[in-house]
Amino acid sequence: MGGSSNRRINTTFFLIILVGAIISSLVYWRSEKIIFTTLELVETQLPTYDALQKFESALTRQERYLYEYYATQNSALYHTGYRNAELDANARLMTLQEDYQNHTGLATIQRQLKEILPIAEAFNDNMAGFTNWDLAREQLAAISAQRRAILPHVETIKHNIGREVATMQNAVEESSYQVRHLVFIHFAILLMVAFIVARAIKSAMQNAAFSHRLALFPKRNPNPVMSFSENNEITFHNPASEQLWHKLGETQLSFAQALSPQLNKQKQFVCDNENHSTLFELEINGTVLKCGLHWLTDVRQWDMHVTDITAQKQAEKDLQYQATHHVETGLCNQYALREYILKRTTGKNFTKPFSFLLIALSDFDQLQITKGFQGAQQVVNQLASSVSEVVKQFNQTTSMEFHISDNNFAVVIDNDPDGSHAEVFINQLENYVACALFHFQYQPQLHYGVTRYPNHGQSLEDLLRTARHALDAIEPQSDMFTFLYDKSLGERVAKESSMVEDMKQAIDKQSFRLHFQPQVDIASKQLIGAEVLVRWPRESGWVSPGEFIPLAEKSGQIVALGDWILREACFKAKQLYDVGNTHLVTAVNISPKQFARRDFLDTVKRVLKESKLPPENLELEITEGVIMNNESQTIETLQALKSLGILLAIDDFGTGYSSLSYLKKFPIDKLKIDQSFVRDMHQDSDDEAIVRTVINLGRNLNLKLIAEGVEEQSQWSLLHKLGCHEVQGYFFSKPLEFIDFQQFSAANSQVQSQDANAIQ
Fold first, then answer.
1. DSSP 118-172
2. Per residue in 263-282, pLDDT tens?
3. At a CB cut-off of 8 Å and minimum separation 6, what does 17 contact?
4. Which residues pair with 400 in a beta bridge?
5. Considering just the CA atoms, what is the radius of gyration of the chain in Å?
6. What gap in Å lies between CA 55 and CA 61, rounded to an integer?
7. Element containing residue 726 per DSSP (H, E)
8. Helix (H) or strand (E) holding 278
């Protein structure tokens, strides 16, 4: 096509020079009319002829920009170069229409020129998306055909201009009196011809440069480009292809041979589906190649564009591994567990039973505190290896292990309808762990929650929930390492869940009630205060504190409940204070979680300020467990409370850690002897000895002693004899609602007044 264009250009230049020579000859021999005719030629015919040339040049540039766009895939060549050339061609056509309004060829040119535009726009859309190279070549061929169809009409107009020039020549022959002046006109015409020739030469050089750039595209392409014959021989390749073969350790021939089976398959696919291209992946010597195969109909050969996607594929594998494995232990994680369970609970596996084990490292939090995060992680990693090793050795049935959280593992054991295989696995794991050597000579303590599919759940969520229920049902100090989920446990968990929800609403609605158990001086039998006890009236009846207090601790509701008790007790105590009971002390139990909060001291200060209760009328009872945790922070908080004037008591003394050192370090005012020692002290010499020891210890340390659970006269008398200061219990009074306690305190005050008057 390039040679044909050059021939047309050369022919055009030759015709221009020929016409100039003819005109020059006529100019020399013609007279006055030559001047007139030549002037007319210069003013009208040549500009028109120039417009034709520029129009033709604009058409050529349009096609050239599209071919360059195809070669470089640079869309700017379409939006700037091609569009500008299109506007130029339309402008030249308008000029020709003004000069040749009645020429039928111009209408045809205008129509054919408009037909080029939608093809060019379709070509641009194709190149801008996922390029169909065969379609692109067909579109370029269509545009070239349209341009060639326009050229005959342009030649016709040129021919008409030539005829008009010939007519003028005839007129010039009749006028020769100004021949001497026509030499200068001849010179001007030669200059114009030279200018046109120069422009044409420049245009041809530019076209040649663009063609050269197009030819360099495959050569400079960083990705391999190859052409194949019908029998899969490589007929063309660029330098990048040679680099690829070197990287693969292949030659051109061996690469073609290795590719041939896949190439035949893809060729058949293209033919069967009547496509012109297809994409496929190929792995050779560990390198993954993405290949785009294209069938070129016009030259009847296959082109293949190759991209090395090995790094991309490896990155995808790495991401997939990270998404399905625990980052520290390398075991499959909870996401992999979900897929694993899904495969065993759907389709043909729907009814196949299996056991689901949830394994917990029970003292993981304490391990982190004592050994640090890294040390704890080392132990977990070793435990993960132990679980994997036992799974590998377990020959009862198929099993699979997972690491689903920091200190939790899961094991799925197939074909275990009764859980017997799960128990065997647990025994083997316990034996293995007992013999293994862990970091810091640490001996892990494991708890197991075992549930079964489909009896106890038919989804991962159900199995996790029931296994967690089974795990949570194990007592912290129990020697049981496994607990199978059963129906009664599910009912208990459901009941506890319902109770927790009701508890939240009861706290919000302040449905709890405070009862006050009187505390009396053992010597004078006078009322000195009361311990606040919380009661919960539910629709089904009163709920025992022994039932809902542990549940509040477990669910985290104890903090909100404890804050409400403290606030309510202080306001009630202020009411007692305001009616003259200024000597009564109200004792409030503080839970460990409540005491451990950073804002506990601020909460106490705020409640005292809002209730306006004098601090010395408030006594806070804390357990020995609170004192033993975070000793420095505990001392600081207790001293701050003491500085406010609040009284401090140790509740249930002797049942916990009972260290004599904290009695010396901490600002304690009172020891409360637990009722478990008081209940049988008058019949059991051991209990009596314990009570006597606690009383002597407290008196030697100048601490007040109060015994709870006093229900009989013999207990009262013995405590009085041993030197106990205060008592509380049913012998004196049961816990009373606030209005009843108000009446009780008023009656006690009246008795005290009568006794005082009698003494006087």
1. HHHHHHHHHHHSS--HHHHHHHHHHHHHHHHHHHHHHHHHHHHHHHHHHHHHHHH
2. 888 888 888 777 778 888 88
3. 193, 197
4. 412
5. 51
6. 10
7. strand 726-728
8. strand 277-284
Q: Does pLDDT of 677 surpass 80?
A: yes
DSSP string across 195-239: HHHHHHHHHHHHHHHHHHHHHHHHHH-SS-EEEE-TTS-EEEE-H
Could you tell me the sign of the dihedral formed by the alpha carbons of 526, 529, 533, 534, in that order? Answer: positive
355: phi then psi, degrees, rounded to nearest 5: -100, 145
Sequence letter at residue 759: I
DSSP run (H or E) holding 183? helix 179-220
Q: How many alpha carbons lie under 13 Å from residue 50 in its C-beta half-sphere?
A: 15
For 399, the enclosing helix (H) or strand (E) is strand 399-405
Q: How far apart are CA 412 and CA 453, in angstroms?
A: 10
Query: What was the pLDDT predicted at 57?
Result: 83
What separation in angstroms does the CA of 431 have from each of 384, 477, 645?
Answer: 15, 20, 56
DSSP conformation class of 544: P
Tokens linked to 521: 């001086």
Q: Say how many C-beta atoms besides its own lie within 10 A of residue 548's C-beta.
A: 25
- Please, which pLDDT band fits residue 727 given cuts at 50, 70 and 90? very high
22 CB-near residues (< 8 Å, 6+ apart): 169
**Bridge partner list, 535:** 513
Q: Which residues pair with 518 in a beta bridge?
A: 530
C-alpha span between 8 and 14 (Å, rounded): 10
pLDDT tens string 7-28: 665 666 676 667 666 766 665 5
**What is the pLDDT at residue 167?**
76
- Cα–Cα distance list, 464 to 485, 509, 570 (Å): 11, 33, 44
Q: Is 731 within 8 Å of 520 (Cβ atoms)?
A: no
H helix intervals, 436-581: 460-472, 487-509, 545-555, 558-578
Return the C-alpha torsion angle 474, 476, 481, 482, nearest 10: 10
pLDDT for residue 72: 83
Task: Give the confidence band of 760 by pLDDT, cuts at 50, 70, 90.
Answer: very low
- Is residue 332 helix, strand or coil? strand
- Transcribe 509-526 into DSSP letters: HT--EEEEEEEEETTT--
Where do runs of H (alpha helix) occur along 221-303?
Answer: 239-248, 252-272
Residue 632 burial (C-beta neighbours within 10 Å; 0-12, 13-18, 19+): exposed
Q: In whole angstroms, what is the distance from residue 78 CA to residue 84 CA?
A: 9
pTM of the model as a whole: 0.50
Q: How many CB atoms lie within 10 A of CB 451?
A: 28
Residue 726 φ/ψ region, left for φ over 0, alpha for ψ in the -120 to 50 degree band, beta for the rest? beta
State the Cα torsion 680-681-686-692 to the nearest 10°.
160
Q: Using CB atoms within 10 A of its CB, is residue 58 exposed (0-12), middle (13-18) or buried (19+)?
A: buried
Q: Which two tokens stand for residue 721?
A: 């004899």
Looking at per-residue pLDDT, the higher value among 292 and 158 belongs to: 292
* Sole residue written with tokens 């996401």: 335
Residues 719 and 677 sit within 8 Å (Cβ to Cβ):
no
Evaluate the omega torsion of the peptide bond into residue 224 and state whether it is cis, within 30 degrees of 0. Answer: no
- Cα separation, 719 vs 522, in Å, equals 8
With cut-offs at 50, 70 and 90, classify the pLDDT of residue 756.
very low
Banded pLDDT at 61 (limits 50, 70, 90): confident
Which residue(s) pair with 482 in the sheet? Answer: 448
How many Cα atoms are found within 13 Å in the side-chain-facing hemisphere of 577? 16
Alpha carbon distance 705, 12 (integer Å): 127
Q: What single letter denotes the amino acid at residue 47?
A: P
Main-chain dihedrals φ then ψ at residue 657, nearest 5 degrees: -85, -20
Q: Which two structure tokens, joined as six digits, stand for 138?
A: 């067909």
DSSP state of 314: H
Contact at 8 Å (CB) between 429 and 390? yes
Write down the pLDDT at residue 758: 45
